[in-house]
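Quick note —
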Amino acid sequence: MSVTIDIAGLPAERIVFAPSPLAELRMSLHALAQPSHHPRLTSWTTATTAALDPDLADRLLEADFMWRSSFSDIFMAFAGTPGGSGRPGATLAGELDVLDRMDDEQFVMAALEHCWLALYDVGGGASPLTDPAARTRALEAAAARGPRQLAFSVRLLDDTAGVRVWMRRLLEDCDEAFFAETWKRIGPGQSADARHKAEVLRRKGLPAALKEVSSALSVDEALTTVTADKMANGSTTATDPRIGSGLVLVPTDFGWPHLLVLHAPGWLPVIHYPLGSPGPASAPGSVELLQLRMEALAHPLRMRLCRSLARAPYTTSELAVVYGITAPEVSRHLAFLKKAGLMHTRRQGRYVQHQLDLAAVARIGSDFIEGILR
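Predicted structure written out below.
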């Protein structure tokens, strides 16, 4: 499984390394929402969460599915807004200005990205702003996440302009509360990393530059296709008549173990790559338990299910739609994962949701976590 980017004919100067304050704000919000994904950031997430104003914390909960269970593309608006440079802005305010120029339909589709997991590569289908059936599907998916997600999705569809104003203010308040100081500390290092990798690209070529970015990235000998080794299938092109051409590689201090590849139709591709490397993994439990867990993970479909379940809770029917199989077949695979002690199950209203137990998975090793969350 992989995500590929067609770069045939792309001029070298259109391959850019640059930090993005808005993209890094998204990753910091994800770290706050999913601290178990980021054990190396425990000190920061604990201190930041403790210092958050309760009102701001409540407002973040309203829209957290845009960074908790999926990574909404609105935080990389530079890659999808016509008329722009196709590159990140130097400041958070500048990137929010670009986001403001995005049309409502594109904004809504990106904000509700979690509703289109099975349709990401075909643009998510019809717009829920104009198509009643698409609206119903979006709200059903939001309801499966929980009442807060449903309420926000209804609000987004009924008052898109108002939500956009609310969203900008929310992100500006996050900047004032904690991100400006954080960015002041990490921004220079990201700029230095971007300059270094741009120099590697200039002097040694794309294969060497990608090797420094991540071992999960490669390019073919003809330099026409970049491949990201991920537990997902997708493809995109670095040239779009509506946006222009380019491939942007954005560093992140908050990202590991996620290596993100924006490959939505109508958007230029972006690779969001983590800086640094993980610490040592803890030792596994008994041999019998380890064997049971490895058997559970040996099936390729169960590995793919783990990719979704590691990010957020899902119902059996949702997973059946995403992976194109029957609900009973999903249930059989989930039962195997649960027997191996790798999964939690809980009831959310009338929905039964399943989620991967990252603490249990961490005992297998950091390489596995990096693989499924990449």
